[in-house]
Amino acid sequence: MINAIEIDVILLSLKVAAVASIIALPISFFIGYFMARKDFIGKSIVESVIALPLVMPPVTTGYLLLILFGSSGVIGGWLYDRFGMRISFTFWAAVLASVVVSLPLVVRSIRTSIEMMDQGLEDASRILGVGKWKTIWKVTVPLSLPGIIAGWVLGFARSLGEFGATITFAGNIEGETRTLPLAIYTLMQSPGKEESTWRLVVFSIVISLIAMMVSEWYLRKKRYDRS
Which label site among 14, 94, 123, 128 has the fewest CB atoms less than 10 Å from its CB? Predict the structure, then answer.
């Protein structure tokens, strides 16, 4: 039977993934929209920087976050000195690490969806006197919704499986930053914990599979509705 510690790990993991994916979604939408609709010098460099967490070792990502947001870091040091806020090795460090590593996946999904839209619909809305932000809300968002939903699910699943950046920037603190991957890793190092390890492994597979199945169902439904 699943025990209280395992339940706490699962709930914490779901909480981190949910908060991270909710934070990443609006940021990813506006980055995706900007990259889909704007051409500028150095665009390929910006695209590479956005995609960097996908190919960079996660531990490197975590170390850079520690340099920036640690208590002695560039941003984290200022926050700690001015407001007494500490981000590193807290719940919010796990969330921030998940946001950073999942952001490229969400941006790519949303950007692709916006690029596949007919931009003439947005232009027609503007010609009719609808403001830019209202056009985005009333035209762009509904038409790119399948990509937005797919991106959100990918971000959630990626956050649920984040390990390297989290353990480097947030640590492996029971009850605060020990998410599913970290708990599985910890149990693997402990003799006699094979059963508990397998329970968490199975749960992580099941929840990721459910998320992807819901995403695929929604995309098929939207394609069917349009046909």
Answer: 128
Over 80: is that where the pLDDT of 117 sits?
yes
Taken in order of first residue, the domains within the chain and their CATH numbers are 4-226 (1.10.3720.10)
Mean pLDDT of the chain: 89
**Helix residue ranges per DSSP H, 73-163:** 74-83, 91-115, 119-127, 132-135, 141-143, 145-160
The neighbour count for residue 50, using CB atoms within 10 Å, is 18
Residue 59 and residue 101: Cα distance in Å, rounded? 11
Decide if 62 contacts 165 (C-beta within 8 A).
yes
Extract the tokens encoding 72. Answer: 């002695």
Those residues with Cβ within 8 angstroms of residue 66's Cβ, 6 or more apart along the chain or in another chain:
73, 88, 168, 169
> Whole-angstrom Cα distance, residue 128 to residue 100?
38
Determine the Cα–Cα distance for residues 151 and 105; give it in Å rounded to an integer: 7
**pLDDT tens, position by position, 99-112:** 999 999 999 999 99
